[in-house]
Design goal:
alpha+beta
Length: 229
């Protein structure tokens, strides 16, 4: 009880160096959520001590220098980091914030959480490092410009071909219209009607046969007259 009251009074006295943490394990992991217990608290202290050591390049910060207080069932609490030389004095909040921001991804990974489910309320979320494209930017721009140029050339070629076809069709239509207006039309090769030829042949043959029969009758009549005489 004395330790808890001492921690609470320490957090209240040095509020500018204390940080509130809110953890949403159920939201992050769903059915795979784990329970927050003393082991998880120990891991959190270890990760904060690790962040302080890595930030200051000093091995003086111990797990015992990270103090947790005001724990709630919904997994929210306050923590402070005390100075290893003077256990009562807390480390400035600016140093703690810088250390947390520097190692935020390592802390999140330890609990399988993210900046949204493991929140340090006084510490802004860290931005993930920008992803560098595997292809150089100039090559992407060059490819886009080249594609646009090729597409433009193809469009011009296709449109030119269509325009030529349209102009040829217009010329042909204009020629046909001029022939109709002037009354000129190509008669084409003339064909002889075979029926006309047959009629002429039959008429000529019948006329000659009539003349021949008339001449025969006339000769027979002269011979008969001679016989009577």
């Amino acid at each position: 009880m004395k330790e808890t009251s001492a921690l609470n009074s320490l957090s209240l006295i040095n509020a500018q160096n204390a940080f509130k943490v809110r953890i949403s394990i159920k939201t992050a992991l769903g059915d795979n959520a784990y329970a927050w217990d003393a082991s998880e608290e120990y891991l959190f202290k270890a990760m904060v001590a690790f962040a302080m050591r890595r930030y200051s390049d000093k091995e003086t910060t111990q797990i015992s220098n990270v103090l947790l207080c005001n724990m709630t069932e919904r997994v929210s609490f306050w923590f402070v980091v005390t100075d290893s030389a003077k256990n009562v004095t807390t480390v400035p909040g600016s140093e703690v914030e810088a250390a947390i921001r520097m190692n935020r991804n390592r802390i999140n990974s330890a609990f399988l959480l993210t900046d949204n489910t493991l929140q340090f309320l006084k510490i802004s979320s860290t931005l993930s490092p920008p992803i560098e494209p595997t292809v150089p930017v100039w090559l992407i721009v060059f490819s886009v410009v080249l594609c646009l140029v090729v597409a433009g050339i193809l469009f011009l070629v296709v449109s030119g071909i269509r325009q030529r076809k349209k102009s040829r069709c217009k010329v042909k239509r204009a020629g046909k219209n001029s022939k109709v207006r002037t009354g000129y039309a190509d008669p084409g090769p003339q064909e002889t009607n075979p029926t006309f030829i047959d009629c002429v042949f039959l008429f000529g043959f019948s006329h000659s046969s009539l003349n021949l029969s008339h001449g025969v009758r006339r000769d027979q009549g002269i011979e008969q007259w001679k016989q009577h005489m």
